[in-house]
């Protein structure tokens, strides 16, 4: 889980309504230089959603701020401070991903090409099998006709008739 963690951006939860980005900046500036402060707004009320993000220039400053501010009180509310996870964008092959939905378009096309290739190969195999079965049937039919021809030739051949008579006499 820590592989997606942004070590210089902190999630700050439990913010009071009165807290804005400048107050949040002032609360965290003692720990180091701050690159950015964001408090996402609720679209319906246009107020922040009781949490924000503070991005420090240095990872060590973010770690110090997290150690000192997690559980601290700001405007009468206890803060929860953790490393922030990367922003999630809906889409991608795994459902939620930190990439836009069109990012997996290439893999989709590759999968489509692979499926089409598999279907083509299966059709070729099936055609080859049918051809082999047809050849086998023809060969079997020719062999049966050859046996009939041999039987017919044996009836017309005087030597074959003599051999057959001798065999019959020896058997009797």
Automatic annotation (TrEMBL):
Ranges of biased composition (kind: Low complexity): 120-130
SMART domains: RRM
Keyword RNA-binding belongs to the record: yes
Basic and acidic residues bias locations: 133-166
Keywords of the record: RNA-binding
Family matches, as CDD domains: RRM_PPIE
RNA-binding among keywords: yes
Name under which the protein is recorded: ATPase E1
